[in-house]
Amino acid sequence: MAYQKPKEEMMEFWRAFQEAFLVLYGTRLATIAAINGHCYAAGAVSALACDSRIMVKGPYGITLNEVAIGVVIPFWIRDLLRCTVGHRQAERAMQLGTIYNAEEALRIGMVDEAVDEDKLMDSVREEMGRFLKIQGVPRAKCKQELRGKFLRNLRERREEDAHQMAENFTSDLVQNNIAAFLASRSRRE
To answer: DSSP readout, 114-169?
Structure first.
């Protein structure tokens, strides 16, 4: 069996991740994710927390495929994806652990643009320019009102979520699946 981190350490890590998410998702500032490589799990959650996501076309994928290793995706991450891509797309993506390339992610609304690698930063600057043309206070107020209920729900349930994630993540099933995944990756390299 793989080395198990004590549940308390996992809870501490998860609380820090929750806090980083709450700050990013709740900021009054406009945020843009520039995705120039694989964007899995926590990376995908961080990208989904942004106001806009621009992803490079190519061999890269974006996914919330935690179910593939036996992790039950937390309620707030399920809600986040559902708010972004709609119920049916979120349901299929999470149950099947679908990894989307940039064009597929654009089609379902997981990203807002799919661009060639050499155009990424130009696209990010153009997108930020669109946000900067809008008056900051009304835009920020609108964003805070749209995201307020989601943020309150996560804040109220943080401890329950951290406990559930620690229980799930430190289970023998998940730890063995992670060990097998890492072993398969090291054999490829």
So the answer is: EE-GGGHHHHHHHHHHHHHTS-HHHHHHHHHHHHHHHHHHHHHTHHHHHHHHHHHH
Dist CA 82 CA 48 (whole Å): 11
Residue whose C-alpha is closest to residue 84's, from 62, 67, 59, 115: 62
| Alpha-carbon separation of residue 48 from 26, 68, 177 (angstroms) | 12, 20, 26
**What are the angstrom distances between the C-alpha of 7 and each of 54, 112, 168, 176, 181?**
35, 37, 10, 16, 21
For 122-140, how does the pLDDT look when each residue is reduced to its tens digit (9 = 90+)?
A: 999 999 999 999 988 999 9
- Contact criterion met (CB below 8 Å) for 58 and 117: yes
> Which DSSP symbol is given to 75?
H
- Residues facing 34 on adjacent strands: 54
Phi, psi (rounded to 5 degrees) for 29: -75, 155
Q: List the structure tokens of 138.
A: 């009304």
Q: What is the pLDDT of residues 141-188, one digit of tens each?
A: 999 999 999 999 999 999 999 999 999 999 999 989 988 878 886 776
Side-chain-facing half-sphere of 97: CA atoms under 13 Å: 8
Q: Which tokens sit at 7?
A: 């549940």
Q: How far is CA 100 from CA 56, 70, 94, 103, 116, in A?
A: 12, 20, 12, 8, 16
pTM of structure: 0.91
